[in-house]
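It is worth pausing here to work through a concrete case rather than discussing structure prediction in the abstract. The textbook approach is simple: state the sequence, then state the predicted structure, then interpret. We follow exactly that order.
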Amino acid sequence: RFNSNNKTNYLIKPSGNKNMDIPLHLLAKYFLRLYTQENPSFYKDLNKDLTNGKFDEYLPFIFLLYDALNKGYLKSFKEKWLYRIGILSNDEFEDMKVKYKTAKESKSSKAFYYSKEFLSFSKDKDKPFAFLKNSKDCVSIYFKIKKPEIDDFYVTNIDCESFSVFKEEREVLFLPLSCFEIAKISEEKKYKGYKYQEIKKAIKKYREQ
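Step two, the predicted structure:
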């Protein structure tokens, strides 16, 4: 169960022994390290459940991360750009293009994308290309996100590099319900024989959502 005092929140173990109290921000960092592991693939099962609508089951975990981030125990990214390779079905990509085209033609609306699951980005622009793949049923998307020039946007990302299992990936994790504006969709590009689309996104401020 959760308990709190003036300084921090604690997870109380069943024994009730206060010497065994675990600060919740340490538990949050443990969960994040677990998320970055390849085996067992905790992150795959977690995101699969979130995509399938099992959001309520993970609310305590998500709340834990938001709480630690809000209290300054976890930090957001400081770099100007973030990068990610995402795999979308052909239908998902077509739907995104329609939204972008409609918003662009109307000039009075914007195309937004809300993430249902955790999204991993890298501070290294070349690292994500290792995840490219060619398929008739899906499209590889190279996402580029620019950090807002202002500081008053609602932070929904965590810089995981310091406690990630794979520090070389320089990972930044966006939490579920993060909001992005689709700023630009490029023409098809190629990288070492792989085809991909490049999409630029903008992180949206809380007050604009």
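Step three, interpretation. The first helix runs from residue 24 to 35. The chain has four helices and twelve strands.
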